[in-house]
């Protein structure tokens, strides 16, 4: 682990609390709607939508555009009919304005002093840059599926980070709150760190955050990760 | 100009002083060599090398690799034969360790408070990220020819910035110390700001930094640019 030079971070759920941010934004414009259920439904549409791109059914599509396609369906499912196109566009960009977890900025700031820290998210570059500015996330570099034109868990994304920084895959550590993402990285030879985030899906959907023994590091949050990595 | 949201910066020469940094690094490892002439020769190889990629003679090649190809030729031309492969590799990465102009960090910091600030450089992502960390450049996002797989002045690069941030080309301003780069941006509908940098090529090669009247802004340096843009 002393050879790790680059920490690549999953973003949604790992770095920022999408559930609370999205639920609040929905309730602000749709007062009668269950923001918690709406946020979960929106997020649940994410993997199937990406799968349509990965299978070739859809051409390459930015997450902003996938989010909008899913949002239109979810609004219909929740019988929300009063929003204008502009309001739907603004609500769609709530993913650019997600709030970091309380430990995020302090943890990243410590880690940045010792490692190169970058995103590795399926979110598009503009989304991630807006979010970094909004939330004060001190990335050294923003990397995205958009750069590699493949979504995680495609190996091109994990290996792409190593290639961008001209290091071996074992010199990159993926930091994520999702075991499937970490498994994809591990299969490419990256180091992995699991971050718990038990409230990722809000108060009604439990998340198993137990240590599966497969990652190099298991940490409660990013401040603990900094401590465990000596940063 | 009140509608500009994104400032995209050329980097080599505009933001950092490549000439001084490269000349010093060369003289440190090759004491008998004229660092000034070596730096100019290395940089002079840059456009012809990119041209070989743009013409299709070479496949897509990162600037790090083009820099190395040129460096090998320049070392031969200057009769430098004592460097190991590892020393050549380290010297090649001097482009990751360029020093900012004295006004750069202060100017960017002011501009960042009002605009989204990003790079738009032919330099590769890893080079630009290393440089930002080394020099303390507070980019909101690092964009590169590597993202668009075209070098400036290909329109795909200028229009790519607008696409990434989901804005109109006229809401992006290219900031550069080179009129040809600015002309390319202008042809795509971007706003443009010229920065003088009279010492870009060192003490022996003069640079015409006069106002050609074609750019929206003409500034001595990035602090003056911040003032002119009300940042």
How does this model look, in words?
Two copies of one chain form a homodimer. Chain A is globular, with a radius of gyration of 17 Å. In chain A, the strands form two sheets. In chain A, strands 5-4-1-6-7-8 form a six-stranded parallel beta sheet, with helices on both faces. In chain A, helix 1 (18-29) packs across helix 2 (35-44) and helix 6 (104-114) runs parallel beside helix 11 (222-228). Chain A has helices spanning 18-29, 35-44, 46-54, 63-77, 85-92, 104-114, 125-135, 145-148, 155-164, 179-187, 222-228, and strands at 6-9, 16-17, 99-100, 116-121, 141-144, 172-176, 191-195, 217-219. The longest helix of chain A is centred in the N-terminal third of the chain and has 15 residues, at 63-77. Chain A has 231 residues and is an alpha/beta fold. Chains A and B meet through helix 7 and strand 5 of A and helix 7 and strand 5 of B.
**Rg over alpha carbons of chain A:** 17 Å
Residue share in helices of chain A? 40-55%
How many β strands of chain A by DSSP?
Answer: 8
What's the helix-strand series of chain A?
EEHHHHHEHEHEHHEHEEH
Shape of chain A: globular
Oligomer: homodimer
Structural class of chain A: alpha/beta
Contiguous uncertain segments of 5+ residues of chain A: none
β-strand percent of chain A reads 5-15%
Major pleated sheet of chain A: 6 strands, parallel
| Strand neighbour order, sheet with most strands of chain A | 5-4-1-6-7-8
- Average pLDDT confidence of chain A is 97
Distance between the termini of chain A: 13 Å
Name the chain pair whose interface involves the most residues.
A-B, 20 and 20 residues
- Number of helical stretches of at least 4 residues of chain A: 11
């Amino acid at each position: 682990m002393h050879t790790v030079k680059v920490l690549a971070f999953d973003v949604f759920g790992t770095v920022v609390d999408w559930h609370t941010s999205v639920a609040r934004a929905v309730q602000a414009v749709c007062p009668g709607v269950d923001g918690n259920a709406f946020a979960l439904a929106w997020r649940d549409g994410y993997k199937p939508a990406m799968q349509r791109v990965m299978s070739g059914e859809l051409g390459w599509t930015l997450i902003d555009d996938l989010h909008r396609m899913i949002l239109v369906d979810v609004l219909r499912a929740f019988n929300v009919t009063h929003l204008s196109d502009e309001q739907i566009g603004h609500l769609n960009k709530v993913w650019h304005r997600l709030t970091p977890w309380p430990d995020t900025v302090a943890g990243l700031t410590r880690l940045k002093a010792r490692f190169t820290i970058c995103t590795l998210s399926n979110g598009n570059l503009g989304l991630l840059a807006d979010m970094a500015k909004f939330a004060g996330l001190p990335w050294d570099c923003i990397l995205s599926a958009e750069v590699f034109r493949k979504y995680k868990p495609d190996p091109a994304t994990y290996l792409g980070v190593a290639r961008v920084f001209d290091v071996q895959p074992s010199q990159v550590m993926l930091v994520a709150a999702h075991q499937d993402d970490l498994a994809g990285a591990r299969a490419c030879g990256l180091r992995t760190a699991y971050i718990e985030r038990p409230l990722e899906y809000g108060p009604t959907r439990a998340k198993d955050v137990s240590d599966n023994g497969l990652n190099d590091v298991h940490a409660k949050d990013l401040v603990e990760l900094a401590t465990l990595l000596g940063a």
